[in-house]
Amino acid sequence: STHSNSKHTNAAQPVSSASGVREADNRLTYSRVMQRAASLLRHAARAGRLTPCLVPVRHNTAAAAAAAAPGANAPQVPEKRASLDAFAKYLTETLPKYVQQARVTGQGDLELLVTPTSVVQVLTFLRDHTTAQFRQLVELTAVDVPTRKNRFEIVYCLLSHAHNTRMVVKTYTDELTPIDSVTSVFHSANWSEREVWDLFGVYFRNHPDLRRVLTDYGFEGHPFRKDFPLWGYTEVRYDDELKRVVAEPLELAQEFRYFDLKSPWDQIGAGGSPSK
Fold this sequence. Notes:
By secondary structure, this protein is an alpha/beta fold. The chain contains six helices and nine strands; from the N terminus they run ααααββαββββαβββ. The strands form three sheets. It has a five-stranded mixed beta sheet with strand order 1-2-5-4-3. A two-stranded parallel sheet has the order 6-7. Strands 8-9 form a two-stranded antiparallel sheet. Strand 6, helix 6 and strand 7 form a beta-alpha-beta unit. Helix 2 runs parallel beside helix 4. It is elongated and about 80 Å long.
C-alpha cells in the first residue's frame, strides 16, 4: 500500500508543478497589461496599421470615491484619454458628413455633435462597430434653449460594456422639424422619446406609438418648454353636479403682485446670529 501511495504521490507532482507554472504566468497585473496594450495600440495607430479603438481601463475604487467627493475633479487616466482622443479623430474622419464636432469632456466622456438627419446612421455605427460596441442606450433627453435658432438639443447617452466607456451624442432641431426615431436601433428609446415628445414637443418620425406618457390626454402645451407658463393653461376641479373632475380654462382671481413683506421670524444671518 505504501508503494502504491508513493506512485500516486509521484504521479500528482507534474499536475501541481503545471498549476504552479500557470499561476506564475498569470502574475502580471491588470494595469501592466493594459499599459502595454495601450502602448501597442498607439504605436500601431501612428503607423497606420490599426484602426483606433477604445482601451478598457479598470477604475480604482478609492480613486472613484475620491472623485465623487464634492469639489473633486474626475481623475484622468492617460491611456483612456489617449484612446478617446484617437477614437474621436477616427469618427470625425470616418463619418465626415454626419459628425460635426467630437471632443472629450472634462469628466473623460466622449461627446459627438451630429446632424439631425444622421442620428439613426451614427447610433447604428456606434452600436455595431467592433471598436465601439455601444450596445446600451442609458438615457435620452432634451434641453430647451429658446435663444437659439434650433432651440432643442436632443441628447443620447450611450454605454459600452465591452470598453467600459460612456459617450454622449447630441443633435438639434426646432419646434417644427421632426427627428428620426431610434427605436429601430435601441428598443429602450420607445418611452424616452414619448417623454421628450410629451414634455418638450419634439416630434419623432417613424415612432411606433408616439403618445403622451406623463401628462393627461387632453393636456395643452409642453410643460418643459421654457416659454410654458408656470401656472399652465387649464385648471381642474371636482363638479358636484357631474360627479367627476372637470378641466376648465384657467382663471386667475387677481393680478400678479410682488409682495415685499418682512418675515415675523428671526432670520439667521452671517455667523449664525439672528438678524435685527
